[in-house]
Amino acid sequence: MASLSTSLLTAVQSLGAATGALQVTNNNIANANTPGYSRQVAILQEAAPTVDGGISTGNGVVLEGFQSVRDELVQTQIQQETQAQSGANAQLASLQQIQPTFTTSTQDIGTEMSALFSSISGLATDPAGTADGAAVLTAGQNLATAFNTASATLTSQQGGLNTQVTQDVSQINQLTRQIAALNPQIAEMDATGQNGGTVQDQQNQLVLSLSALTSVAVTQTNNGVTLTTGNGAALVVGSQSFTLQTTTGSNGMQQVLDQNGTNITASLTSGDLGGTVQMRDKTIPGLLSQLDTLANQFGTAMNAAQATGFDQSGKAGQNFFNISSTVAGSAGDISMALTNPSQIAASSDGTSGSNGNLANLSAVQTAALPSGQTPGNAYASLVYQVGSLTSNATAESSATTSSLLQLNDQLSSVSGVSIDEESANLITYQTAYEAAARVVSTVQSLFSVVLAMGTVAAE
Amino acid sequence: MRVTNMVPDVQYAMQQSQQALSAALQQVSTGLRVNQPSEDPSAAANMVVSLAESANVDQYTSNVSSVLPQMQTADSAVNGMETSLSSAVTLGISGANGDVSTQDKQEIVSQVESALSSVIALANTSFHGVYIFAGSASNTPPFVAASSAYASTQGSAGNPLSTTTALTAGSITTISDATTGETMTFKAAVGNTVATLSTAIANAVSAGTLSAGVSATIDADGQLAIGTNSSTAGIVVSSNDAALGSMTATAGSQVANAYAYVGNDNVNNVQVGDSMNVASSLSGSRLLTQGANVIGSLNGLITALQSGTSAQIGTATSAVSTALNYISEQRVPLDNTISQLSDQESYLGQETVTLTTQQTSLVGANIADAATNLSQAELANSAVLAAAAKVMPQTLLNYLAPG
Asked: Can you give the pLDDT at residue B284?
């Protein structure tokens, strides 16, 4: 049967529930801007009623606990999208540094190549003229420098990316260690039926940071989260983390090995590490190889044209450019072989005033190189590729950014803290607390009445 | 959908609109739609090709500007030769008159000689250091006063050259004959000696390249002497053979009115269009010694005036007259080249405009569009900022009474 004491108990329970709910609200407000924080709600439940003589009396409220509100699916999608975004951003950052070298300027390869052919054509009007000859040498030197600069830009970019690989791997190892360390705590809380709460939030945030670095597959198990690389090598299982290692490969580049020593470099495709490896091992070598081919074939063609003529002293033309015997590295080390205007093989008949061979040198501009394209078109196609790679990376970066924004909106619609909502909750729980407190004071006054009843009777 | 925090969306919107604003600003300030290849890869690649064409057209234009005055100089030189020849014809006609005194004849001879030397001076015309009538040997004067005797600088009485003295393989010795107007070029092969050179000279004499009497011998000073056996036949000898040293004319052996052509018959061409070349030099030999021999005809007139009969002077004069006609004919292709160059100059000007238009359409920004885009981007940006300012401070807290 209901009694004043029961009512007092119910009111005190209600005070506790309101305090708990206020604490949750407080915590939510405090963490409104904390990255990775999932809002919590207080789980309030009706206390089991007391049935006495067919009358069921409610026993107030019970604070069952706190629950973080999550959406695992959206969380997973965000991880995947983050991998794609970081990969695209890594490539974009690198391409944006490469692009200026292939942008038309006063000293890009295309401009310097035109300048060389212009100077050769100009030399025809005064084949023995020192000034016109010097102009050809300067233009040749400038073109060689333009090739050297472009090659150096690509190579130094590749070197920078190589350092990035080592840094990424060390960050990945640090993150997997931290993630693994949290697994036992979460497993224990799960086992006792508790909500992972902030520990889970912390782990999710670490997995997100890891996703920004590389592609990981995430599986939830009884022992916490299990992480594997894109090709299935384990990174985190239970409380154990497996480190990735780097070793210098035969090409001088850092290779990434899993815990079994298997080289997984080629399978890294997304995340900062994937984007970096993609740029370092595919994109840049592709561009560099075309640049080397162009420099080598162009230099060879100029040397061949030079060899068909005679210099000012009537000797067969010597090499115009110094080029390496192997194609690889040609753009980096092409240099001017001629040091004096008199060495230009302008003459076709051995007399010093002849300009007959300049036509052969000029013809290099319009003749197809062994690659099948004229030098100008071969360079234009390089410009197209750099432009198109950069433009694709830009498009992918902005697409993933906007899609990530939507996913984050979606996640925050589930897990995010709304200050307005919490303000309303604050009022709700404050009112609830005040009401419960009123009940306590009411019960107290009733007790006083009851006690006074006894006193009056005694008088 | 439950909306909890609008800040990320507002930030994204601001960033997007600021990017658009910056892009629009760049287009207006640079006048270019494509500032880097990624903005339009295919336009950027086409631009590379188009700029190369532009550079070529600019160079062709510059070549035309160099060659045109050169050809005009050549034309006026040939014109000067015509004047000299026609004055020689007039002189010849007056010299053929039997009534002319010996003293007057002598005066006429010196005038014809001066006409000859002015023809030679004109044939040695150079334009900015380029000898126009030297064929491809355009950096040395093509007509050189000939001498009857040349000697090598190597060799001395104490250390004489001999017929077995070895020549340097690859060296070149040339003998240009003023009488035949031709040049013998001897390129030494491995194992060749002075004797081989002598034989080659003898063969050239048999073939008619060199006049009869030209020969090579070792003289009393132990030097290689190349000469004619006549004081009226002249040659010009040059050699880059180290064993011989350079060949120098013996003092006092210069032959009056004899000039040898040391240029060649090749011509230099200058590119003035993608598939258009014009000759920038002419063969002096073709102009003055082949066809009607101009120098020969003037020499013939001088000889006839000095010692010939009126009839012989008449014949010599008509030879000069034939030479004059020949020279006039040679002017025609020269004039054609000049008019071709003038045409090409205006075509290249047109081509520059076409290429510039093409480049503008490839990467240039339409200024009207760009300006409109800029003001739209400005408007959009202010709208985003205004919206952000309205939305961001909105919370329930603003409306709750304090305490």
From this structure: 87
